[in-house]
Amino acid sequence: MTKSISVGGAVAHVPTDVRRQQFIDAAVTVIARVGVDGATTRRIAEEAGAPLATLHYCFQTKENLLWAVFEQIADLMRPDPAEGDVRANAKGQTVSSIATSLLTEAIQWAIARPAENRTQIEIWLWAERNDPELAVKLYGLYIDLSKDLLRAAKNPLPDDQLETVTRVIVSIADGLCMQLITHGDEKMILRELATASAMLDAYLGRRSRRIA
């Protein structure tokens, strides 16, 4: 399906999936700049260079657009075998190796994509205040992705430990991402990442040696 818009008196046909992506990209830009409350659908449509009515046609509500933005950000963080992502080859690795790779790649991603990093945090905070169920659902994307990778480990954690360890990893990543936004000091964040990774490795590596 396509949407028709007038451009200089002519009618341009833009496929709906292309227009949706334009709105998602525009939303990332606007939310990173002014936050979720300031990112009105009108501002996002203007950033995308598209009619406001088309945005509502594509997403119906602002909440649906926010969910689409968050899904895209989460998808960008998924392991990519074609790029040699360490996590993509998780099967057979130790829990410690997968955990430290998860944390390292999350922070490297945040450094490389500052707008997306800020946007995901802005959406989390907005959802927590305005739609707690959505906040839980959003957070669950990262929890589930991390748990799936950790389950692929050689000698995987029992379910109760898996839940706790996963949430600790995500919490450390959250804290470092917030510090990156606050201080903007990449070298400091990388030093703290190295310390956090060593702590995870010490804890989980001891478990692996005990099992072995």
Low-confidence stretches: 1-11
Written as H for each helix and E for each strand, in order along the chain, the element string is EEHHHHHHHHH
**Total domain count:** 2
Structural class comes to: mainly alpha
Oligomeric state of shown chains: single chain
Report what the structure shows:
Strands 1-2 form a two-stranded antiparallel ribbon. The protein folds into two domains: 59 residues, Arc Repressor Mutant, subunit A; 140 residues. Strand 1 and strand 2 form a beta hairpin. The N terminus is likely disordered. The protein has nine helices and two strands, in the order ββααααααααα. The protein has 212 residues and is mostly helical.
Concise account of the structure shown:
With 212 residues, the protein is mainly α.
List the keywords.
212 residues, mainly alpha, Arc Repressor Mutant, subunit A, 9 helices, 2 strands, 75% helix, elongated, disordered N terminus
Lay out the secondary structure.
Blueprint: E1 2-7, E2 10-15, H1 16-38, H2 41-48, H3 52-59, H4 62-76, H5 95-112, H6 114-130, H7 132-151, H8 159-183, H9 186-211
Antiparallel strand pairs: 1-2
